[in-house]
Amino acid sequence: MSLTIATELAARFRQCFGKEPRLFRAPGRVNLIGEHTDYNDGFVLPAALDLAVFVAIAPRADRRLRLRSLVMDETAEFDLDDSAPLPRGDWSDYAHGVAVVLARAGHRLSGADLLIDADLPLGAGLSASAAFEVAVGYALLAVSGASVDKVELAKICQRAENEFVGMRCGIMDQYISCCAVAGSALLLDCRSLEAKPVAIDPSARLVVCDTMIRHRLVADEYNERRDECERAVALLSSGIDGVSALRDVSIEALMRHAEDLPEVIFRRARHVVSENARTLRAAAALESGDLATCGRMMDLSHASLRDDYEVSCPELDLLVDIAQGLPGVYGARMMGGGFGGSTINLVDADHAAAFAGSVQERYRQAKGVTPPVFDCAPGPGAGPVGA
Ligand code: ADP
Ligand code: MG
């Protein structure tokens, strides 16, 4: 964990605001497998990163929130007593939304000055948005003398992104940023919100490769996939008993009712239903040290996201193709919403350094740019810095 960034942030805060801040951090995440399953009440297998969003905060005597993001090099200001708060359509909505939802949930927040920095890349599919929300939520509650259950904070941050930012994300990103366990992934049941830590064998590394492609229409495409899943549920629930989400559909039942669905909707459903099964299988394999099976599930996940869910892009496919052909690689797949962002690779620790070099070289030969590669250690969830 980067303590330097926190120390520097505290010094900048004293300079800017002339008072002593408290410091909080919330991590970004990888997801080994379980993509586009969280909003279908399904299973995911994320782990928090040692890369995070950092917030320095001190209370104000008035009812204003003043935020300065060093990453965006911008400042935004809001009044906590504004009776009709509106999104502006920029980065500040994530933080403002958290304050608004916390207030609606009955928390009396104190005005505050916040200085924000991050060593987590934004828009890379590592969920900087959730890390930002959770860090701000944690900090606002702490200076207001309130506390909240971590799962509750995750739900509040998800609501902020759903209702204030307009991104209908599931619970995974906020949940893992709040509740992660160092050294482990969490097998999270997105319906019950029960999570089971699954230790990641230290002989394997989680390596992230960033395409550097940032698709502007991710939110539109993402929300469209959600609509398609809801359509599948509406159509399937008339033929199969007890279906309130795609989580409730087995692959056998889906195949029996294939004719009831338009072809595209069938393929969307097939991705989600098969991905849930792959995620459970991958978690069991990881737990028993069977990295080869875990990796094979990741490879299959990528093919399903590319062909059935159609959320990949040529750059992601290329990074995955390169990775799958390299020595010491158990599995590789696109990660996150899709249409750009990053891939996640499960790589033998002894091969990780050579893997990074080979991926960068081959991708550069094909595309003319060198993709950033992050060799990640599974870290703890959000909290005060230094705790
Ligand atoms: P991802 O979550 O994959 O990183 P998103 O597009 O969902 O991608 O979230 C990135 C957005 O979150 C940024 O464009 C910005 O609006 C906001 N954000 C995240 N971290 C910060 C930060 N440190 N300062 C300001 N805004 C941030
Ligand atoms: Mg995001």
From TrEMBL:
<keyword id="KW-0299">Galactose metabolism</keyword>
<feature type="binding site">
    <location>
        <position position="69"/>
    </location>
    <ligand>
        <name>ATP</name>
    </ligand>
</feature>
<feature type="binding site">
    <location>
        <position position="129"/>
    </location>
    <ligand>
        <name>Mg(2+)</name>
    </ligand>
</feature>
<keyword id="KW-0460">Magnesium</keyword>
<dbReference type="Pfam" id="PF08544">
    <property type="entry name" value="GHMP_kinases_C"/>
</dbReference>
<feature type="active site" description="Proton acceptor">
    <location>
        <position position="173"/>
    </location>
</feature>
<feature type="binding site">
    <location>
        <position position="222"/>
    </location>
    <ligand>
        <name>substrate</name>
    </ligand>
</feature>
<comment type="pathway">
    <text>Carbohydrate metabolism; galactose metabolism.</text>
</comment>
<feature type="domain" description="Galactokinase N-terminal">
    <location>
        <begin position="12"/>
        <end position="59"/>
    </location>
</feature>
<comment type="similarity">
    <text>Belongs to the GHMP kinase family. GalK subfamily.</text>
</comment>
<keyword id="KW-0479">Metal-binding</keyword>
<dbReference type="InterPro" id="IPR000705">
    <property type="entry name" value="Galactokinase"/>
</dbReference>
<dbReference type="InterPro" id="IPR019741">
    <property type="entry name" value="Galactokinase_CS"/>
</dbReference>
<keyword id="KW-0418">Kinase</keyword>
<protein>
    <recommendedName>
        <fullName>Galactokinase</fullName>
        <ecNumber>2.7.1.6</ecNumber>
    </recommendedName>
</protein>
<dbReference type="Pfam" id="PF10509">
    <property type="entry name" value="GalKase_gal_bdg"/>
</dbReference>
<keyword id="KW-0067">ATP-binding</keyword>
<dbReference type="Pfam" id="PF00288">
    <property type="entry name" value="GHMP_kinases_N"/>
</dbReference>
<dbReference type="InterPro" id="IPR014721">
    <property type="entry name" value="Ribsml_uS5_D2-typ_fold_subgr"/>
</dbReference>
<dbReference type="InterPro" id="IPR006206">
    <property type="entry name" value="Mevalonate/galactokinase"/>
</dbReference>
<keyword id="KW-0963">Cytoplasm</keyword>
<dbReference type="InterPro" id="IPR020568">
    <property type="entry name" value="Ribosomal_Su5_D2-typ_SF"/>
</dbReference>
<feature type="binding site">
    <location>
        <position position="161"/>
    </location>
    <ligand>
        <name>Mg(2+)</name>
    </ligand>
</feature>
<dbReference type="InterPro" id="IPR022963">
    <property type="entry name" value="Galactokinase_bac"/>
</dbReference>
<dbReference type="GO" id="GO:0004335">
    <property type="term" value="F:galactokinase activity"/>
</dbReference>
<feature type="domain" description="GHMP kinase C-terminal">
    <location>
        <begin position="283"/>
        <end position="364"/>
    </location>
</feature>
<dbReference type="InterPro" id="IPR019539">
    <property type="entry name" value="GalKase_N"/>
</dbReference>
<dbReference type="InterPro" id="IPR006204">
    <property type="entry name" value="GHMP_kinase_N_dom"/>
</dbReference>
<keyword id="KW-0119">Carbohydrate metabolism</keyword>
<dbReference type="InterPro" id="IPR013750">
    <property type="entry name" value="GHMP_kinase_C_dom"/>
</dbReference>
<comment type="function">
    <text>Catalyzes the transfer of the gamma-phosphate of ATP to D-galactose to form alpha-D-galactose-1-phosphate (Gal-1-P).</text>
</comment>
<feature type="binding site">
    <location>
        <begin position="35"/>
        <end position="38"/>
    </location>
    <ligand>
        <name>substrate</name>
    </ligand>
</feature>
<feature type="site" description="Transition state stabilizer">
    <location>
        <position position="29"/>
    </location>
</feature>
<feature type="domain" description="GHMP kinase N-terminal">
    <location>
        <begin position="94"/>
        <end position="179"/>
    </location>
</feature>
<keyword id="KW-0547">Nucleotide-binding</keyword>
<dbReference type="InterPro" id="IPR036554">
    <property type="entry name" value="GHMP_kinase_C_sf"/>
</dbReference>
<keyword id="KW-0808">Transferase</keyword>
